[in-house]
Structure formats: C-alpha cells, structure tokens
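agent> Task received from the user: take the single chain below, predict its 3D structure, and emit structure tokens. No templates, no multimer pairing.
agent> Plan: (1) validate residues, (2) run structure prediction, (3) serialize to tokens, (4) report one or two observations.
agent> Step 1 OK, no nonstandard residues flagged.
tool_call: predict_structure(input=
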Amino acid sequence: MNRREFIAGLGGAAVWPLVARGQQQPVPVIGVLNAGGPISADPAFRRGLNELGFVEGRNVAFEYLWADGQYDRLPALAAELVRRKVAAIYATGTANSAMAAKAATATIPIVFNNGSNPIKVGLVTSINRPGGNVTGMSNYVGTLVAKRLGMLRELVPQANLIGFLTNPANPLSDPAAIQAAARGVGQQMIDLTASTVDEIDKAFAAAAQQGVGALLVDGDVLFNNRHDQFAALAAHYKIPASYPNRVFSDAGGLMSYSVAPGETGRLCGIYVGRILKGDKPADLPVLQPTKFLLVINLKTAKALGLTVPITLLAIADEIIQ
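)
tool_result: status=success, residues=321
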C-alpha cells in the first residue's frame, strides 16, 4: 500500500507542498485534523491566514484528515500528520481531535477550535499562559447549554420534563453538567442517548413515550451531520427542541443558539499565521468567543402551536418566517 492509499484508508486528502522556483525550502504545510466529515479549511480560517500574509498555493499548503465521527480513528490520523512533519496542526470538530494531536506530539504547534473547557480536558494548564505546544479557541459550550436551557424553558414553560440528548460514543459528552444546571432552576430532566443514525430515531420515540415536553440537543459531530433527520423527527413527534448551531434551524429546527459563525475560524487562522511567523503557542492565550447567534424558526413554532415570547423575539439575531 502506498502512502496515498494509506491516507485514503485513514480518512483524508492531501494538498502537497509546492516548491517555488529558486526556493530552497518547501512551503509550510498546515495539517487540518477534523473529528467530523470531509472538509477543507473553512473560509474564515483562510481569511485569518491571509491577514498574516499566508495564501494557499503561494506560501502555504494544507493536508486534511478526518475521522467522520469515529473518534477512535483520531490517534492514527494525528500520528500520520506528525509523520508527515507538518508545520502546525489545526484541530477542529470536537476536543477529541485536539487531544489526539496533543498525545501524538509535544513539539508541533497545535491550534484547536472546539466547545470544551480546555483546562478540564487537559489541553492547556492555563487560559492566559497555555504552556506547551497547544493553544486555540474555546467555544466552551457548558455555559452555552445552560443558556439554551433557559431560553427553551422560556419558550416552552409548560414542559415539566425536558430531555437532553447526547452521544455516549463521544468521550467528552457531559450530561451531568446540564443536569446540575437543571436542578439549579428546579427543572426535571431526563438523559437520552444516540450514537448511530438509527438510535436518533429511537431516542425521539423514547422521548415521546416518556412524555418529554421539550428537547435539548447536545453538540456532536453525528448530530450536526443529521440536522434534516432531527427536524423531521421533532416535527413528527411534535417535540419543541433547541439545537447547538444554526444548520438545524435552517433545516426546520425550532431554535438554535451558538457561537456566531466565522469569528472563531478567522481568529484561529490568525493564530496559526502568527505561529508560522515564529510565535510560540505557549505565549498565545486561549481565545474565547464574544459573539453569539440566536436563530428562531417561527414557521416551526407555529406548526408546534407555540407562541414565541416577545422577550425572545427581541434578542433573536435571526428570525425564520
């Protein structure tokens, strides 16, 4: 098996470094490690690199590897990027990709972009002084999920029982955190799980059978790739649901609250550019988002027989009619 066949088997595609005429060294290669499906570097990430003077095909190249939601494949993918001797690794999708990259190398700079608490999962020792070879953007969703719970309760105040749907195959899934937030406001919650497409169907059926009045969907690669399925099931069982990003609302989901798209990728691109220019990850503070996006689908609310409170409409960034 040749190297290209090996990479294809792992899950990935490579854009090999170019050597400019008269240039002694190949251009730096950024390894993009994604826990989700096939992607290229997002436009916002490229914009960040461009701001630092790095343009693909001119003075920087990319190598993409992805796990397609199979988290146990990430260590081998990270090891391949290390073997390739990339100049930096951009780890995205979930914190699992960054953790695999960190386990694979203590020298190659790693910039992560995910929703976990980076200290809790062991990526850094400090937000302001990360130390080691890892830094990045923490879209810490722990607080976001609590915020989503509050807005869901405001939209569906009659929901005595709210379900929280997570993927148990994701080692970073933490239903206990949202259960603690629910207890703090006197809300009864029930844990629901799904780690396959079929189990998503079964989770909605179980929610309906157990009298769940509203559903909070956790952020997960599997779930993000099945937004149409979620919207259809929520409509079928007439369960109001809150989702972790706007693709669900665009597909017909009731409501989503997330970090505003674009900001995190661009800032990560700037960090990778600074590292390529000589900055050390240990000296670059972990970034945190400042812009968030609330999307409400009024068409779905009407179909579910819900009246959206004026307080939510007033703070919504986008309303889908």
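agent> Step 4: summary for the user.
Residues 1-8, 15-23 have pLDDT under 50 and may be disordered.
agent> Done.
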